[in-house]
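Suppose a colleague, Dr. K., hands you the sequence of a protein chain of 341 amino acids and asks what its three-dimensional shape might be. Before reaching for any lab equipment, you can write down a predicted structure in token form. Begin with the sequence itself:
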Amino acid sequence: MLRLPAFAPSFPATVDEAVRIKTAHGLDASYVAGGTDLYPNMKRLQQTPRHVIDIRRVPELGLLNRGAEGQLRIGAAVTLTRLIHHPLVRQEWPVLSRAAATISTPILQNMGTVGGNLLLDTRCNYYDQTYEWRRAIDFCMKKDGKICWVAPSSPRCWAVQSSDLAPVMVALGARVILMGPKGSRSIPAASLYRNDGIEFLTKHPDELLVRIEVPALRTSRADYQKLRRRGAFDFPVLGVAAWVDLDSQGLVHAARIVVGAVGSWPMESEEAAKVLVGQPLTDESITAAATAAARRAKPLDNTDFTIGWRKDMVPVYVRRALVNLLRPSSPSDAAGLPPAG
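The predicted structure, expressed as tokens, is then:
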């Protein structure tokens, strides 16, 4: 049995207090909400904070409502279960409910949070093992070693970004609000991520993710498709988020296609979007966009399934996401969502 190492907990009541504690302890401290990623990582000695800052008692981090400009405001500590079943989300941002419902299992959704999934540590077959297993292969570049076992000649780590909500938030044009010792800043969700398995976030270590703001869909539509071995629990080995904004004539005014779990960050395919803009969503334009999106996807041997098959599935899943946007929909469309609870 893997045991959780000893640590000192803190329970701040405000965002400012949480940031002050983190600043005081520096890299020796970690924020935690649900703990579904941090605590297993601590048990495997992948992360070794001696101070853990539990942010669940901060009221601001639990908000979930509509902002003054019609955007959806999601506190970082909102649980996945709450996001899945919230009436406002199900009615007006159903893609978020559907994507969140694919994460892990209902039990872990009760604990896991939106912020935690967006900041999920990158994963790899050679990294997500026990300390003893990793020591037996002389560790890896991401933790304690000097080599990437996925690509031994590479100077960088190729661990994979396996968040389900990250590609969706990028596709929807969401923004994230961060608070640090120098104040708050708002950045696009796309700017939160780096293409690096180790330094995979642009969030400063002492910054706290406070909330996510998602624009209203209005004339746009979005979908998320996930590939994994089992129908529940598993992380994605491929996740595709598609968003299109249609004009009054049914032509694509703007589009974003984001592919996740095949690299160290959610990869937006600008080429695929350009194929769609100015065109109706037809079999021809969808096929061209799916082909374009697949060109950038270069999966490596660091997750489940074979490399070649995973790459072959990219255009298939991009196509599925775009085809789903063709079906008649309305703001209250909740097809594919789990039962309200």
